[in-house]
Structure formats: structure tokens, C-alpha cells
Write a structure and sequence with these properties.
Elements lengths: L4 H9 L9 H17 L5 E5 L5 H7 L4 E6 L2 H9 L7 E5 L13 E6 L9 H14 E13 H11 L5 H6 L20 E2 L1 H8 L5 E7 L8 H6 L2 H14 L11 E7 L1
Parallel strand pairs: 1-2, 1-4, 2-3, 4-5, 5-6
Antiparallel strand pairs: 5-8, 7-8
Bound molecules: S-adenosylmethionine.
């Protein structure tokens, strides 16, 4: 399967490699790594689906894990390969999260799906990607699935920064006028969901949720303040974020969420 042209064009020009390296962007990376580290065991075999330029895959391979990666966009695969260090036990192939038939059942101890669900627009496509991630994971293994959350994005990218024109989204039927639930198409690039959508997606799967995490919490809303913090204040902010990132009364405000579940 080939990426749609909107996705291809976006990742040709977007510096995906830099996304998680800004101070405020690092909050999502550090949070995800913190939860990964909680479950990783020496010798684990890992699969990253939608690995992008390999920020997570390379970080994990450099810690000694064997990592296989799947990525849809060629440009990202080229950067992934360029970022590979000689000592890494790592592979990357072009593929689609909805069809991992190149991989057999029950192979991986941990499977990362940190990106494809941002760009799959129908319930069926998202379910197929989740089904495939679960299929290739061994019983007892853990899947980490990331989403873009609509309320965090609407407040940050919409009302705060003006990158999303909320009035226009309403006019075009991309937002429900009553409850502001989002609806996206490939040309809009990002599929924005709420936790209730994720719960509905996950309903048929016989897995056990371990954590539902606001992976960047309010970090994007506070991007300028976070980038200005001295090291000590940033460490304090991170401690606060780690302490509250699973609180039910706060998870809706995040821009990205991480659903962690066990097969
Ligand atoms: C926001 S990036 C995340 C990359 C990386 N996982 C990370 O968290 O840094 C999303 C990635 O998912 C990839 N992607 C989108 N749809 C996909 C699909 N159906 N199958 C595989 N990869 C896909 C994109 O090309 C992009 O590299």
C-alpha cells in the first residue's frame, strides 16, 4: 500500500526528526519512554509500526533491544536509515499498519503503534491497525498505541495559535456544532479523537488496559513557558506531569494520548 499524497507531501516538508527534540516536544518522548521502560525486559523483541524517522526505534536499539520497524513514507525511511548507528540491531521495511502480513502471529514482546492512528480516518482502518498490532504481539506482550486528541489540539492549534480555523472547521462539517467532536479526511492530515472514541475502538479486543496516559498533557499549551524554564523548573514540571498524566480529570486536555494494553 502507498501513502496518500497528503501524507507524502506533509512528511516531505515537515521536520518529523525535530518534533520531539524541542523542550516542550520532549515531554511526549520522555513520557512514552518512561512507560516503555516500565515494561521492557532484557532480550525483548520490539516492533515499531509507523516508526517515522526512528526516534523511538533508534533510542531502544541503542539500549540493546532488537527492533523491527515498519514505515509507510519513503522519505521517513531514508531518514530512519541515515539515523541508524552501526551497533544497532534494527531493521526497517516499507509497509502499512493495516496489513502486517509480512509478520507472523505472536512474535513480539512489545509493539509500538505511535503514529499510524494519527492518519487513519475510518473506524475500520483504525481497528485493522490495532488488530494487526495485537496479532503480532505474543500473549502477555504489551502494545503502546498513540492518538492525537481533539480538545488539546483545538485549544492549542485552533484557539491559541490559529493553525486550525475552528470557525471554518465548523462550516465544513469537520466539527460537530453541538459537542465539537471532530471528523477528519485525508486532506486534513490528522485524525482527532477523544477518549470515548478510543474506548469504542478497543471494545471488541480481548486485551487488558494497563494505562491511559496524557502523554504531553498541557506541554503544548505551555510551549513558550516550558521552553523558557531553567533546568530545575523543567525537572519540577516533568515530575508534576508524570504525577498527573493518568488523572481522569486531566487526560482530555492533552494533545497526544497513549493507550497501553496487554494481550
Ligand atoms: C507523527 S509520526 C510518528 C513517528 C514515530 N512513531 C514517533 O512517534 O516519533 C507518524 C508516522 O506514522 C506513519 N504512518 C502513517 N500512516 C501509516 C500507516 N498506515 N502505516 C504505517 N505507517 C504510517 C507516518 O508516515 C509517520 O512516519
Amino acid at each position: 500500500m502507498q501513502p496518500n499524497r497528503y501524507l507524502n507531501e506533509f512528511y516531505q516538508s515537515y521536520d518529523e526528526d525535530l518534533r520531539l527534540t524541542t523542550r516542550h516536544g520532549s515531554v511526549e518522548f520522555l513520557t512514552t519512554m518512561r512507560y516503555l521502560e516500565r515494561y521492557l525486559k532484557p532480550g525483548d523483541r520490539l516492533l515499531e509500526v509507523g516508526a517515522g524517522t526512528g526516534r523511538y526505534a533508534h533510542a531502544l536499539a541503542r539500549r540493546g533491544f532488537s527492533v523491527d520497524a515498519v514505515e509507510l513514507v519513503e522519505h521517513n525511511i531514508e531518514l530512519f536509515q541515515k539515523n541508524t548507528a552501526p551497533q544497532e540491531q534494527i531493521s526497517v521495511v516499507q509497509g502499512d499498519a493495516r496489513d502486517l502480513s509480512a509478520f507472523s502471529d505472536n512474535q513480539y514482546d512489545k509493539t509500538l503503534l505511535l503514529g499510524p492512528l494519527y492518519h487513519l480516518y475510518s473506524f475500520e482502518d483504525k481497528r485493522r491497525a490495532i488488530h494487526e498490532a495485537i496479532r503480532v504481539t505474543r500473549p502477555g506482550g504489551v502494545v503502546f498505541a498513540a492518538y492525537v486528541i481533539s480538545d488539546g489540539c483545538l485549544i492549542d492549534e485552533g484557539f491559541r495559535r490559529g493553525n486550525i480555523d475552528v470557525a471554518d472547521y465548523l462550516k465544513r462539517g469537520l466539527l460537530d456544532p453541538e459537542n465539537f467532536a471532530a471528523h477528519s479526511e485525508p486532506k486534513d492530515l490528522f485524525e482527532l479523537v477523544r477518549k470515548e472514541d478510543i474506548d469504542a475502538l478497543m471494545r471488541p479486543f480481548a486485551v487488558k488496559r494497563l494505562h491511559y496516559v496524557a502523554s504531553d498533557g498541557c506541554a503544548l499549551l505551555l510551549r513558550d513557558e516550558i521552553d523558557r524554564m531553567d533546568e530545575e523548573t523543567f525537572r519540577l514540571f516533568l515530575n508534576y506531569h508524570f504525577a498527573v498524566c493518568e488523572r481522569e480529570d486531566l487526560v482530555g486536555i492533552t494533545s497526544h494520548a497513549l493507550d497501553i494494553f496487554q494481550k
